[in-house]
Design brief:
The complex is a heterodimer. Chain A is an alpha+beta fold. Helix content of chain A is about 20%, strand content about 15%. Chain A has a three-stranded antiparallel β-sheet with strand order 2-3-5. A two-stranded antiparallel sheet of chain A has the order 1-4. Chain B has one domain. Chain B is built from eleven helices and four strands. In chain B, strand 1 and strand 2 form a beta hairpin. Classes of the chains: A alpha+beta, B mainly alpha. The interface between A and B is medium-sized, with 14 and 13 residues.
């Protein structure tokens, strides 16, 4: 038959010579290969004691940042929700009341802000879309495994950065 | 006097039995570690330091499993199978000389459980009995896979016993005795001016090769583990076994490996003799203890070799196994006997 790629090689099956029929050289070759692996560095990472090093640009769990005075930066503009290819982000916007200036930086803020970690693909487009530098993907935290699906919907209680310690 | 002698004998028997079981126990651990290392993994390391308590954990697990007997199995034989396998496995280490003599208070104590002047024959008889445990267990299970495994084990052991016996006959022509103690002692003589290096491997390299191949087949180890070939026979003869019945079969295999390693070291690799043993000028008892340590080093190397081969070679096909046994090993071993006999005659004529 004509070969399509012209790269096919014609192989001839030769009868085995004496050393090949003895099998012993082949066995010793195999034994030497396994012995080499015996002394090789092991591929295992002993998980609870040591963890795989993460990349500096690793995109992990989201965080909603606060500014230098401890006010939430998010203004609930919705650009992250629009940018999200997996439609994982939902939010409800609200108006800042008088006396809440120390809590929210802008006049509009997110009353609720939820990310579904099962939908999220951790692409980081929300981070790029945010005009207020409010949302970031941390490079040292993962969304841990849980038993129920609704536990994967992260609200503001788990997303917003904790208040910095006040040193008055 | 008689009583103390009996006591010493009992102690030695107990020690040999204990060492056999201990080494077999830790062979299961070593097997898993060796497998892991060869496959670039780390192996069991959670139970105790370096996973050293792993055999204990395995035993506890096996003991707490349900002892299941299939409905249509012959209950007596089903239980007798693994018991017989374990019993015969433990019997053969009795005649192996684990060292020379210790002289305590002018009394020479041989480091050997029982001395019989037909030691090799005894080992052969017991090893041949070992297949009954597998046969009876597989047959009593009333399961086609088990039966096939049992039949394979029987035919394989019979085929390879012939070649093994022939390779031993060649060895007997060289040594002129059947006693394990005498064979071990003979190998302590001088070779090229080095004492303790008169090992039979230098006279019987082909015989040793045949013997080690047959030893792999007799202990049902890879590449000859067709009786428990899981790709074809589910689990082979131990398909229906659970709990300690299964445990005893697995354990018997490791005891058999230990015995096979000990026999190989004694028959071919000088037993408890090591090079320069008489030229070091050490006291007799120190040499004996050193010799025992050396013997165990040899045995452990062979146990490692069994595992090394297991994780290197694939399993034989059944017809390949029979071809190797009947068409290659038996003619080779007969040729070996004739060559050895001829060489001995020639030596008598010339010198």
């Amino acid at each position: 038959m004509q070969s399509l790629s012209n790269r096919a090689k014609k192989l001839e099956k030769k009868p085995m010579n004496f050393s090949e029929r003895m099998y012993l050289p082949a066995i010793f070759q195999g034994l030497s290969i396994t012995m080499r692996h015996f002394f090789k560095k092991k591929a295992t990472i002993k998980y609870p004691e040591e963890t795989r090093p993460m990349s500096a640009v690793w995109r992990g769990l989201h965080v909603l940042k606060r500014d230098e005075k401890g006010r939430e930066r998010c203004t609930a503009c919705g650009l992250c929700a629009v940018a999200c290819p997996a439609e994982a982000i939902t939010m409800v916007a609200g108006e800042r009341k008088r006396g809440e200036e120390h809590l929210y930086r802008e006049e509009k803020y997110a009353v609720s802000y939820e990310i579904n970690m099962l939908r999220c693909i951790f692409c980081g487009l929300c981070e790029e879309a945010c005009p207020k530098a409010a949302i970031f993907l941390q490079n040292d935290k993962l969304a841990p495994a849980r038993y129920e699906r609704d536990e994967f919907i992260y609200g503001k209680d788990r997303l917003v950065e904790p208040m910095p310690i006040q040193n008055v | 006097m008689e009583l103390s002698l009996l006591l010493i004998k009992a102690l030695i028997i107990l020690a040999v039995f204990g060492v056999t079981l201990l080494i077999a126990t830790y062979s299961t651990y070593a097997e898993r570690k060796v497998a892991a290392f060869i496959q670039d993994r780390v192996g069991p390391n959670r139970a105790g330091p370096f996973g050293l308590a792993q055999p204990l954990a395995d035993a506890v697990k096996l003991f707490f499993k349900e002892e299941f007997v299939p409905a249509n199995a012959n209950k007596f034989l089903f239980i007798a199978g693994p018991s017989l396998a374990m019993l015969t496995a433990c019997m053969s280490s009795a005649v192996i000389p684990f060292g020379g003599t210790l002289i305590i208070g002018g009394e020479a104590i041989h480091l050997q459980a029982i001395e019989v002047n037909i030691g090799i024959l005894y080992v052969f008889g017991i090893v041949a009995l070992g297949v009954y445990g597998i046969m009876i267990g597989g047959w009593a299970s009333n399961n086609k896979f088990s039966l096939l495994g049992a039949i394979r084990a029987a035919s394989q052991n019979i085929s390879y016993e012939l070649a093994m016996g022939m390779s031993i006959i060649a060895l007997l022509l060289v040594t002129g005795t059947l006693s394990m103690r005498d064979i071990a002692a003979q190998q302590g003589q001088e070779l090229f001016g080095i004492s303790g290096l008169n090992w039979n491997i230098f006279y019987q390299p082909l015989g040793f090769l045949i013997f080690i191949v047959c030893a792999f087949a007799e202990t049902n180890r890879v590449p000859f583990d067709l009786p428990e070939c899981e790709t074809e026979l589910v689990g082979g003869y131990h398909t229906e076994y659970s709990s300690m019945g299964m445990g005893l079969y697995l354990f018997a295999e490791y005891v058999n490996i230990f015995v096979a390693s000990a026999v190989m070291s004694t028959l071919y690799f000088g037993g408890y003799n090591f090079p320069f043993m008489d030229q070091l000028g050490l006291p007799h008892n120190v040499v004996t203890i050193l010799g025992t340590v050396v013997l165990f080093a040899k045995i452990l190397f062979f146990i490692f070799f069994f595992m090394w081969v297991r994780w290197t070679l694939p399993r034989f096909r059944y017809d390949q196994l029979m071809n190797l046994g009947w068409k290659i090993l038996i003619p080779l071993s007969i040729a070996n006997v004739i060559l050895t006999g001829g060489a001995i005659l020639l030596k008598q004529e010339l010198f």
